[in-house]
Amino acid sequence: MMKVEEVLRKLRSRGGRITPQRRAVVGLLAGAGRAQSVPELHSALRQTFPDMSADTVYRIAECLVEIGAVEVFHDPSQRADRYEWVDRRHHHFVCLNCGEVVCLPECPVDKAAESMQLPEGFTVVRHEYQAFGYCKTCQGARSAKVADSAEASDVQERPSSLKSEAAGPKSRRAARKAPGVERNDVRRSSVQ
Questions:
Q1: Cβ atoms of 107 and 91 closer than 8 Å
Q2: How far is it, in rounded angstroms, from Cα 97 to Cα 118?
Q3: Which CATH architecture is the domain 4-105+124-133 placed in?
Q4: Domains of the chain by residue range
Q5: Which residue among 34, 66, 108, 181 has its CA within the 20 to 30 Å range from the CA of 94?
Q6: pTM (2 decimals)?
Q7: Which regions in the chain score pLDDT beneath 50?
Q8: Nearest-CA neighbor of 36 among 128, 146, 9, 44?
Q9: Distance between the two ends of the chain, CA-based, in angstroms?
């Protein structure tokens, strides 16, 4: 795990100035304990740095990714990237409904990677894994919705839907025929 001062030294060694804004973004990510999007970071920094743009936050976060202090992953629920301080390599479960991100306790890819046959000449340096689905709360809400919609469909009148299903194929056959012409007549006329 990189310490804040080590990260600031790395930034400085790459020619970056250690501005109060950079120090604040580093401190915020290091102390958060969770992944955050640029809008979340920007919102948290607004009181201290009212003139700081979201663009600046993004550029600082990307610098931190480049030096390996922060990991970035795409969060489809927010249609945004999230940045997380690297305390250890780990992977995430992302709820597609509410956007909750949970760190996975172990990597499901590590064991598979041991037996993986790589193309000749390739060496794995690192890998990424994200699992997408629904958290417990959102699963409960989805189950309740499905149950409500199933209950509502049971209340609908069945006979009218059965009539329309039965009429379907006949009406399709009728549409294929030209009015007043039998199928055999069409074949004969095309032969002559």
A1: yes
A2: 35
A3: Orthogonal Bundle (1.10)
A4: 4-105+124-133
A5: 66
A6: 0.55
A7: 154-192
A8: 44
A9: 87
